[in-house]
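Sorry to interrupt, but I need a hand with the structure work. I would like you to pick a protein and set down its sequence and fold. Please put the record directly below this note.
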Amino acid sequence: MTSITPTIAYLITAHAVNKQLALLVDALLSDSRSRIYIHIDAKTRDLGWLARTSDERIVVLTNRTAVNWGGLSITDAIRSLLEAALRDAGNVRFVLLSGACFPLREPRSVGDAILERAEPRLAVWGRIDATLARNEGLGRYVVTKFHPLDVPSINPKRGRFRALLWNLYKIINNALPYERKVRTDDLWRGSLFFLITRELALHFVAPHDELARDLRFGLASDELFFTTLYVRWARAQNAPLVETDTTARHQAIHYIRKWKPPNRGLFTRLFVPVDLRALDHEGAMEAIESDALFARKCSAEISQGIMARWRPT
């Protein structure tokens, strides 16, 4: 009887087909055990080189979802990636990445570390207060009001004007005397990105209609859905649950750092959007020295710098 060689399913969600994504895919393919599944936001029409790839280890999803910041649409896209990856019986580990992630070590070394790990790795930040009376340390959560972040016209990530409209909407909406009937007694927040086993992947793609309904119009439900499923699954397995501080730079297998840009005046703060988690050269060096396997929020330039450390010319 022929044994199946264990392989790793890398699930990549991206909004654009760019140089950074190409660097990530090429790096992962250098490990023969890698299988790559890619979901490109349906709002992106031109798939560029992805539409022409003939590599059998790359699967580009055709049933694409329009993904918007903070909504449940991203979980729909991820579940589609998991379903595609589960069709390959050889895939025993499933790693969620964004197009802006990049491996911090030589990819075969990363693959060895992933396959050696028998337990899932998710960064669980904590339990949402069931009364929703407090959210210290857990961020922007109001799950009993209507927060349609999957509606592109009000997506605050699309510009400063929309961000101002979004803040105004929240003020008005939170003051209105209505509540949606949802279950809030066992919701958990954590990082969206994960390393999971095949057993947990099967659990993630199973129907979870009640949770999906509870979070459909919740705020930042993308960070609640899989974390909540994982915590409930771990509890049923009597598996230990370790929480991660929201400010920690090492989140499960990922490294991410929030920085404060110097000399930002009032005008810049109000009208010039800055991604405070975008990795710079200093952060990249810290990431390389950490125990994390991947860095998040990388530009193509940063990824090339990281690659030069583990692939010297």
